[in-house]
Write a structure and sequence with these properties.
- This protein has 120 residues and is an all-alpha fold.
- The protein has a single domain, classed as Up-down Bundle (Four Helix Bundle (Hemerythrin (Met), subunit A)), CATH 1.20.120.340.
- Helices cover 84% and strands 0% of the residues.
- It has 5 helices and no strands.
- The N and C termini lie far apart (38 Å).
- The relative contact order is 0.14.
- Keywords: Bacterial flagellum biogenesis, Cell projection, Chaperone, Cilium, Cytoplasm, Flagellum.
């Protein structure tokens, strides 16, 4: 078994056995990781790789948005939905303009959401 196949099998096992709470944490963690990599590639002027990383984070944000549980009479789900829309739009702008500040803004927001989620 090659390293890549072993790593993929390990990751698949992690996802398949994770609790719903842990799955959300994993999405936050992956988004943060890809944003760090995107920032690095923006600094190195590697536009193709920064684009690929930012698109991965856009996909993660959409997955997080789809995971919102609507609670009747609660503004939390609407606020999270708006927050994810904002982050998604910031990532589009960051990708178009290779704007590292917008990447760092979204990264900070995901880090804060991760800390809040872990405290639950």
């Amino acid at each position: 078994m090659t390293y890549k196949k072993g790593n993929t099998a390990y990751l698949n096992n992690q996802v398949l056995t994770a609790s719903p709470k842990r799955l959300i944490e994993m999405l936050f963690e992956a988004g943060i990781k890809h944003l760090k990599v995107a920032s690095y590639h923006i600094d190195k002027n590697n536009l193709q790789e920064s684009n690929a990383q930012l698109i991965k984070v856009q996909d993660i944000i959409m997955e997080l948005k789809m995971s919102i549980h609507q609670i009747p009479g609660s503004d939390v789900s609407d606020q999270l939905n708006d927050l994810y829309d904002f982050m998604f739009n910031q990532l589009i702008q960051a990708n178009l303009n290779k704007d590292k500040e917008k990447v760092e803004l979204v990264q900070g927001m995901l880090e804060e959401l991760l800390q809040t989620w872990q405290a639950l």
